[in-house]
Protein 1
Amino acid sequence: MNNVLKFKNKKANVVAQDEIYNFAYLDENTKRMIRRALIKALCIPGYQVPFSSREMPMPYGWGTGGVQVTSSCLTTDDVLKVIDQGADDTTNAVSIRNFFKKTANIETTETTGDASIIQTRHRIPENQLNEKQILVYQVPIPEPLAFLEPRYQETKKMHALSEYGIMHVKLYEDITKNGHIETAYAYPVKTNDRYIMDPSPIPKFDNPKMNNNPAIQLFGAGREQRIYAIPPYTEVTSLDFEDYPFDPSKAPHKCSICGSNDSFLDEIITDDDGNRSFICSDTNYCNQRMKDK
Amino acid sequence: MEPILSVQNLNKYYGDQVGCKNMNMKLYPGEVVGVVGESGSGKTTFINSISGNLNPDRGKILINKDNEIINFLEISESLKRLLIRTELAFVHQNPRDGLRLDVSAGGNISERLMSIGQRNYGNIRQTIFKWLDKVEIDKSRVDDFPRTFSGGMLQRLQIAKNLVTSPKIIFMDEPTGGLDVSVQAKILDLLRKLVRELHLSVVIVSHDLAVIRLLADKIIVMKNGEAVESGLCDQVLDDPQHSYTQLLVSSVLQV
C-alpha cells in the first residue's frame, strides 16, 4: 500500500492508476515473497529458487513468471520496456506494457537506454546494458536437465552434487548426429563456475552477452514456479568441448533495413516465390541506427 | 595383501522381514566372489546394500582406495556418489535398467567419462571405439540407439558403459539372466577375459551354479538372508558341507 500512497502523492495530477488494483497488480505480500526469492536467487547465481507463483490474468506461456518478477521490482520511478523476440511492437510486448501502464501507471519506453527495467522474451537487447538496469527474462522450462532426467528429485540432487556429465552427453549426441553442436537456443551455461542454467530460449548468439553483464538479470518461470538470477558482473560460460568450442553463430547477412553486420537477424519471407530478407530482431536497435543516419 | 572391499556384519531388514543378516565378505584385488542361492534368499538385497543402491540397517562396508580405507556407509552423499561413478560399477540383470535407451551407444559409454571431466570430443570418441572393440560390438553401431540392439549386445554395451572409467570394484546382478545359452556363453567368455586382462575385482550374484563355477574364485551360499556356507569356489561346489548347498549342487541338471 505504501507504494500506492507514494505514487498518488507524486503524480496526483496525472492520469490516476486504475483503483481496483494494487500497485503493479500483485498484492504487497506476494511481492514480498517474490522479492525474498529474488534475493536468494541473486545470492546463489544460477540456482533455481522455488516460489509460490500466482494466477495472472494471462495464460501460462505468455510470460506469467516474468510479469510477476517485473511487478515485484517495479517502483513508481521505473521506466519499463517490454520486448518479445527483440521487438517492441508485437502482441505479447504491447499487452504486457499496457498491463503495467494500467496497473502501475508507470512510464514506458521503447528505447533500451532509457529503460530501468526491461522484460524480455527470447532476446537480450543489442545495446550494452548498464548497472542501473534490470533485465527480466520469461522462462518456459527452468530446468536445464529436464529433457535428460525427468525425475525432479534426481535433478535437484544432480545440481546439489554438480553431477553434470549428462549435460555433455546431450552435446556429444549433437556433434555425433550433426557434426557440430546443433543446439541453437536455450544453450546451457554454467554460472559463476557452479550451477548449470537454462538461459531461457534466447538464441545462443546472445549467450556471450550474459557474461559479465553490468545489469541484474532475473529469470521468472510462472508455470514451473521457479526464480533464478545472475548478479551483475558474473561469469557465465557456455558449455562446449575442447575440440568443438562454443560458437555464437549468426546468419551470414546484413540487416536489409539498417545494414547492421553484427546484430541478430530475423529471416522474413517476402513473397510466394521464396524470396527472403533479413532484418534486425531488435527493433529499437534497428530504428535507432536508421535515425542516426 | 589388503582386501579392496570388506563387508562386516551387514544387516538389512524390510520391516520385520529379513533382507540379509550377519553378512561378512572380503574381496581381494583381482578376485571374483560369487553369491548364490535360491530366489528370495537375499542375494540381490546383499549386492544392492554393498553397492550403494540400498541403505543397510547395520554393519560396515570398508573400501580400500589407494591404501586409504573409506567407510562407505559414513561418508557424505556427494563422496558416495563420486565413488559410485568412478571406483564402483553396477551391471544390472536387465541392461535396460543400466542404459539410457534414447541416447546412442557411444553416448551411453561416454557419460561416465564426461562426468569425471573429460571434455575432448576426439579423445572421448577414441575411448568409445576402444571399448566397443573390447566388448566385441561392431564399430559401425556406435551411433545406433540401444533399442536397436539384441539382448546380448545390450548386455555387452552395459558392461562397456560401466568399465570405461576403469572402476576398481564391479557388482553384477545376474548378468546373464534372460539370455539364451549361446549368448550367455559369449558374455561369460567376455567377462572372464576382462577380469583377467583388467585385473578386476568382482562380486557376482547368480542362481546359476555353472556361471559361478566358471567365473568365481570364492563363493558365498545364501539361504533365508544368511550365508550358510562360504569358501573357495571349487571346494564348496565339489564338497558341499551344508545340506542346502548339497541340495543346490545336486539339483543342477546333468546333460
Protein 2
Amino acid sequence: MSFLVLENIKKSFGQVQVVKDFNMAIEKGEFVSFLGPSGCGKTTVLRMIAGFEAPSDGTVVINGKNQNRLKTNQRNIGMVFQAYALFPNMNVFDNVAFGLKVAGKPKSEIETRVKEMLELIHLEHLADRYPYQLSGGQQQRVALARALAPKPQVLLLDEPLSALDAKIRVSLREEIRQIQSRLGITTVFVTHDQEEALSISDRIVVMNAGRADQIGTPSEIYNRPATRFVASFVGTLNIIEAAVVDPAANTIKVGENVVKLREPVGALKGGDKLSIALRPEAGSLSDNAKGDTSLTGKVTSSHFLGSVIRTKIDVGGNQISFDMFNAPDAVMPQAGETVTLRFNASDFLIVRE
Amino acid sequence: MKTSKILAWIAIAIGLIYFFVPLIGTFEFSLRMRRGEYSLDAYQSVFSDMQFRETFGFSMLMALFTIIFGMLLVVPTAYWVRLRLPQMRPVVEFITLMPLVIPAIVIVFGYLRLYNSSSWLPFTGSTQGTNALLVLSYITLSLPYMYRSVDTAMRAIDVRTLTEAAEILGAKWPTIMFRCIFPNVMSGVLSGAFITFAIVMGEFTMAALLNRPAFGPYLQLVGANKAYEPSALAIIAFAVTWLSMGLIQLVSRFSKLAPSRP
C-alpha cells in the first residue's frame, strides 16, 4: 500500500467547492509536486494533509493510518511555509530545537539533532543568530531544518521558494531535492512555477479548478499533456486550430498544409475542427533537417533572446512560436520571409478538453 | 526661508509656549515654599507625607493588577480575533472604544448599581471586593489603549502562520500562546502596560466614587488644602506619565524582535 493516500478528497468553503474528488497515492520517499495556478486548490489539499483544514469528504491516510481524526499537532508532519514562519523571538538553534523540545526530548539528544540539522543546511556557524539577522534564503533553510528535526513522516513544502530571488531559488531547490533524496522523506511540494516542479519532482500533479488534470512524471507531463489545460499551463505550447481531411488516413489540414498525424483522430469526421499542440522547440527550419512532415508559413517576427532565437510563423492564421538554439552560424529568419518548419508527425499532440 | 516654513515654526512655537509656560510656572511655584529663595521643601513635604506614600503605593498596586489581568484578557482576545474570528473585528473594536465615549462617572454609577452590597454580586460589600471592582473598572478604562497596542504588535507578525508553524511542530495551545505569540507581541504588551500605568496613576473618578485611597483622590485632597504641595504633586504626576511614555518609546525602538518576513 502507498505511504500517503488521499481518497476522494473534497473540500467546500460555504457554497464554493474548492477541491473536487481528489485522489492520489504517494509512495514512501517520493517527491511529488502539486502544480497549478492560484486558486486551483493545491494549497487546500496540502493544508488538509497537514490537518489545518478538515476535508468535507474523503480520507487522508498516512502509513496506513487514517489522519482525519488527528489534530495537526498529532500527525508528525513537517512543513515549510512560503513566509518562512520562523519564531522571531528565538535564535536559529532554538527555532530548530522547537519541535524536539515540544516532544520532550532529552537536552543532549536535542543538541545532537539540532547540530546535525544545521550541518545538513550548512548553517552551523549561524546557530546564535536571530531570524531578522538572516537573509531570505538562510531563513528558509532554517525553516527546512526546523521541519526536519523531529523526523516527520511526511514533509510538506508550501511554495517555499516563491519569496526568494531567482538565483537563490534555483540553488535552494537543488539543495531541497538533495536533502530529500538523502533522507528519503516522502515530500509534497506546492508550486505554481512549472520549471520548479519539472526540475525536482518524481511525479507532478497538475491541478485545475479543484481537480487533478494529470498525474505523471515531469517528462510525461511536458511531452504528453493529457488536457488542453495541462498543455497550456506546462511549457509554452502552440495550440493550432486544424480541420480533419481524412479520418481513415489520419490527415489534417493546417492552412494550406496537409499533415499526417501519428495519433488517431478518433471519432472525428472529415471537415471537423480539432486542436493540435506543438512544442516551440520541436522541429527545424534547416532544409536538410530530418522530419517526416512540414508546415510552410510566413515569418511575422523574430527575436534574439540570448541562448534562443524565437520566431513567430503565421500558418493559415495560426501564430506558431518556434525556438531554435543560438549557434554562431545560425541565420535569423526575417519578417515576411516564407519558411518551412520540418518536424516529426509524432511531435503533434491532439488536444483534448 | 519660505513663508510656509516660517508659519510652521510660529505654530510650533505657540504650541510649545502653550504647553510649557504653565508647566514651568507650576514647577517654579513648587520651588517657592521657602520665602525669598528656591527650595525643594514642597517635594520634601510631599515625600514625607505618609498618605502620599500609601496612596502612591496603592495606585501602583492597582496599576500592576490592571496590567496583568488586562493583558490576560486582551492578548488572547486580540489573538483569537486575528486568527479565527476576523469577522468579529468591528464588534471588538467598537466594544474596546466604548470607554472613550461613555464618561467614567456613568460607568462607575453603573457598577455601584450592579455590584452594591445588596446585589447578587456584592463587590462593594468588602474592601477586597471593592479593590477588585476598581481593578476591573481600570481595565475597562484602559481597554482602548491596551487593545490597540497589542493588536498593532500582532499585525507586525504573521500570527496565523506562526501559530500553524508551532502547531505542526507538535505544540499545544498554552505553548503556542506563551512561547510563540506572547514574546513576539511583548513590545505592544509593554506599550499597553505603560500607558495603562499612566492612566491608573492619575485616575480620580472611579477611585473617589468607590472610596478607595488612590493617588488621584489624594491629589485632589492636597490641592484643596495646601498651597505649594499641589504644584509639586502635579510635577511628580507629569514625571510619572513622561517616564511611562519614554519607556514606551524605548521598548518600541530597541525591540529586536523584528518579524521574519519574506
